[in-house]
Write a structure and sequence with these properties.
Strand content: 5-15%
Strand order of the largest sheet: 10-9-8-11
Low-confidence stretches: none
Order of helices and strands: HHHHHHEEEEHHEEEHHEHEEEE
Distance between the termini: 44 Å
Structural class: alpha+beta
Mean pLDDT: 95
Radius of gyration: 22 Å
Shape: globular
Number of strands: 12
Number of helices: 11
Length: 431
């Protein structure tokens, strides 16, 4: 963006992003807005207030603005990420405002954001970074909203026009790719990208011994073989806490699968289908790690994933410097679910590893934590620090509903090791 046009360009981005958010809300039947499809999250109506509440409370603190409605600011400012339903119950709200009350609250907040944006000095780095933060926060919640909507009954959702069915593809290229010993560059340097969250800094290099990595993500078909060979019944594949967690819940298959008599089906966002065996599987970190042990491998570390994706370079994307396009992967809302693994050879890394961006976030074995030299954000200090707990693990890449603005080398996602709702897949490494 040219500095002189930055406020205008950012305003257009805010309009684009909110347009998609409203489109997602339109997929929800009106009677479902107070549903809580995921017990570990607030009801859907919370997010209708949260996005603008979060924006405005950040503006208030940054510029010393007065709150227009302190009680609703407190109600909507921050979501929850409890470890279990008992912890979630402590955040329960007895009564939520009506949708019209929420709209009356958010309209002036939206107006104030654009008024501040009109006054933005493009040379004021901290101010510019704040607006980038607000954009990315909403983009991340678009994905949260969609995996929440995924849990609603189909009759409470409005599918998009022209929705196509799930298509199988040819068997993806199997096997592993040898990655030579070398350096992996993690994080980013100040000014390297338009924006970075605090946990993306500082940029640093890590020496990675040679290893081999799966050419594609593990598919539903491969994971089905794990199930059929007793993967959920064999204790040796599971860590102690993962086994206890699985047994307590009686888990016998991935969250988005459903068994009907002798065959398997996949619960898609807007429709159910036969299990597409050539598509990547979506699982928890615990299930991914169990499969890796079954295969005699392990999940990649964050540094190994980077080495396979970027070598020892600083390219913004695995395929090089070209802006993310439709030929590079299944991301930026190009599909409402997975596509066959290996569909995008033009998105391969220089080593020939496929699907590193798109079709599902990829689990690593690295607990989410700070890089050496980490400094918490002054604009939103708890963004990362609240999750440096050893219970969340780093994911890399992107899912089918990850916006193109979030696709950069340094971005780090994270979730609880047992959280089943997000769109996460994995691949394995061996040495």
């Amino acid at each position: 963006m040219q500095a002189s046009r930055l406020p205008e360009e950012l305003a257009l981005e805010f309009e684009r992003v909110r347009g998609r958010t409203e489109w997602i809300f339109d997929r929800v039947a009106p009677e479902a807005f107070y549903e809580r499809p995921i017990p570990l999250r607030h009801p859907i109506v919370f997010y209708a207030g949260h996005l603008d509440a979060f924006n405005d409370t950040r503006l208030q603190r940054h510029w010393g603005l007065a709150s227009t409605h302190p009680a609703l600011d407190a109600l909507f400012e921050r979501g929850i990420d409890p470890s279990d339903t008992a912890a979630a119950a402590r955040h329960a709200v007895s009564a939520w405002p009506s949708r019209e009350q929420v709209r009356a609250y958010t309209r002036p907040l939206r107006d104030r954001l654009f008024a501040q944006l009109e006054r933005l000095d493009p040379q004021a780095t901290d101010d510019v970074q704040l607006f980038h933060l607000l954009l990315e926060h909403e983009l991340m919640h678009q994905e949260t909203l969609l995996y929440m909507l995924h849990q609603l009954p189909y009759e409470l959702k409005r599918p998009p026009d022209g929705l196509s069915g799930v298509a199988e593809g040819p068997l993806p290229p199997m096997g592993m790719v040898a990655i030579p010993e070398g350096m992996a560059v993690l994080g980013q340097a100040p000014g390297e990208f338009a924006f970075g969250w605090d946990n993306e800094f500082p940029r640093h290099a890590v020496r990675v011994p040679g290893f081999a990595i799966d050419r594609t993500d593990v598919t539903n078909g491969q994971y089905l073989a794990f199930i059929e060979e007793g993967g959920y019944r064999r204790r040796e594949f599971w860590s102690d806490r993962a086994w206890a967690w699985k047994e307590e819940r009686g888990l016998a298959h991935p969250f988005y699968w459903r068994q009907v008599e002798n065959h398997w089906r996949l619960r898609g966002l807007f429709a159910e289908s036969e299990l597409p065996v050539t598509h990547p599987v979506y699982v928890t970190h615990a299930e991914a790690a169990a499969y890796a042990r079954y295969a005699g491998k392990e999940l990649p570390s964050e540094a190994e994933w980077h080495r396979a994706a970027y070598g020892d370079g600083l390219g913004p994307y695995p395929w090089g410097a070209a802006a993310p396009g439709a030929e590079h992967g299944n991301f930026d809302f190009r599909a409402w679910g997975t596509v066959p693994a290996g569909t995008f050879p033009q998105g391969a890394s220089s080593y020939g590893v496929l699907d590193l961006v798109g079709n599902g976030w990829e689990w690593t074995r690295t607990p989410f934590g700070p890089f050496e030299g980490f400094v918490a954000s002054t604009v939103y200090p708890p963004y990362s620090t609240d999750f440096f707990d050893g219970e969340h693990f780093v994911l890399k890449g992107a899912s089918c509903v990850t916006d193109r603005r979030l696709i950069r080398r340094s971005l780090r996602n994270w979730f609880y090791w047992h959280y089943p709702y997000m769109y996460a897949t994995f691949r394995c490494v061996s040495r």
